[in-house]
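Reminder to self: keep the SMILES exactly as supplied, no canonicalising. Ligand is 2-acetamido-2-deoxy-beta-D-glucopyranose.
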Amino acid sequence: MACFQRVVTSSLLLMITLLLGFSEAKEILIGGKTDAWKIPSSESDSLNNWAESARFRIGDSLVWKYDSQKDSVLQVTREAYLSCNTSNPIEEHKDGNTKVKLDRSGPFYFISGAGGHCVKGQKLIVVVLSQRHRYTGISPAPSPEEFEGPAVAPTSAATSLKGSLVVSLGLMLWGLF
Ligand SMILES: *[C@@H]1O[C@H](CO)[C@@H](O)[C@H](O)[C@H]1NC(C)=O
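Structure tokens returned for the bound complex:
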């Protein structure tokens, strides 16, 4: 019986660990695919269209894949973003495999450093929600059908569901002893 309890206990602990693991920071591939950092073919193909349906949280990292010979990623101010001014970026990345950690809430602005690409729409705004938004249902939410996608971070609903699962598992564990 003691042996059985130990097995149950360790399985529960494993499940709790796995559940908590899901709330860890994510690496989010820009556009959800490797060749997304390019001039969009249409408005609906734009990265901002993609970004609106994704969730970004503090601690997540954005990942860009592109040909370092032909393109780069510039993190810029809002003004430079709006005017596609590439001359004085906050950060310039041109290694072809760029990772930027989202270390605060608020907007992050990115434009392509390739000549003329920003003007043709190769640009991205990522808005990171503040911590407290994670647990309320209130956020500039996209419609549910837009929300499916491999690169999307968990919703606040998923977060609270996870929380209650952890609590009920904890109670089960408690009941065993
Ligand atoms: C671009 O930005 C730089 C520095 O931020 C500024 O000196 C320059 O005048 C800007 N160029 C244009 C075309 O706005």
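Points to follow up:
The radius of gyration is 20 Å.
The first strand starts at residue 27 and ends at 29.
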